Amino acid sequence: MAAGGDTAYWLVLLALLCLAASQFWKGRLRRNAINQALHEIRRPLQSLALAERGPAAPGAGAVWQAIRAVGQLDQELNGGPRHGEPDELVACRLMSDACIRRCGPRARLAGARIHLRWTGPDALIRGDGAALAAALENLLLNAIEHGGPEITVNALTVAKRLRIEVIDSGGRQCLQGRRSNRRHGHGLRVARRAAEGHGGRLSVEITERGSKAALVLPVNEAGASRDTAVRAMW
């Protein structure tokens, strides 16, 4: 009986330990999700705070992204049904121009400049325009915060694949800062998830000469249906 009692005791203890471990990991995953949502709220709100006035002001797009991020945070905190992902045609050059405008004030405060080099015509990608814009803006902000003063966005479409590269001129000091500061990891996760969600990929190269983050995305087939609107306003 004593042996049986000891066995039961250890089984109960093991079960309690397993339950505690399960709750710990659930809590950790939940905190990561909330922190990522908070990270996504900060980005558009910073754009709003620094937004320029005039017809090209990026405020409207930033407001739209902030509302979306707040909705994601509310879902993480309170649960509820998840809505389906948007299905739209995204004009990617126009999207890139808007992302650069929104990040422009932040870049100027950091003493940086962003240049866009788009080769060829605009590219249409089907999917979630807000997610793609968030991916590019996060890469731009990483370059501003952790890279050098010269930032270039190169874009080229080859064999129905769009490649958007964000290249900065960071040196050895920026490389060490990237290794010691992990806060920019949320932005890379956002960009990677957006790329993979659209059938693409994200690659990142960091050297003493700078960094290069590349989004590679499949371009939509030519000849979209006439009743399909192209997302062109950002």
What pattern of helices and strands is seen along the backbone?
A: HHEHEEHEEHHEEE
Q: Using the coordinates shown, work out and report the CATH topology of the largest domain.
A: Heat Shock Protein 90
Count of discrete domains = 2
Q: Give the number of DSSP strands.
A: 8
Second rung of CATH, namely the architecture of the largest domain: 2-Layer Sandwich
What does the average pLDDT come to? 75
Strand-residue proportion: 15-25%
List the helices and strands and how they pair.
Blueprint: H1 2-49, H2 59-78, E1 88-91, H3 92-109, E2 113-119, E3 124-127, H4 129-146, E4 150-158, E5 161-168, H5 172-180, H6 185-197, E6 201-207, E7 210-218, E8 230-231
Helix pairs in contact: 1-2, 1-3, 3-4, 4-6
Keywords:
8 strands, about 230 residues, Heat Shock Protein 90, alpha/beta, single chain, Helix Hairpins
Protein described:
It is a single chain. The protein is an alpha/beta fold and 234 residues long. The protein folds into 2 domains: 77 residues, Orthogonal Bundle (Helix Hairpins), CATH 1.10.287; 144 residues, Heat Shock Protein 90 (2-Layer Sandwich), CATH 3.30.565.10. It is built from 6 helices and 8 strands, in the order ααβαββαββααβββ. The strands form 2 sheets. It has a 5-stranded mixed beta sheet. A 3-stranded mixed beta sheet has the order 3-1-8. α1 packs across α3 and α4 packs antiparallel against α6. The longest helix has 48 residues. The chain is globular, with a radius of gyration of 22 Å. The chain starts with a helix and ends with a strand. About 3% of the residues have low confidence.
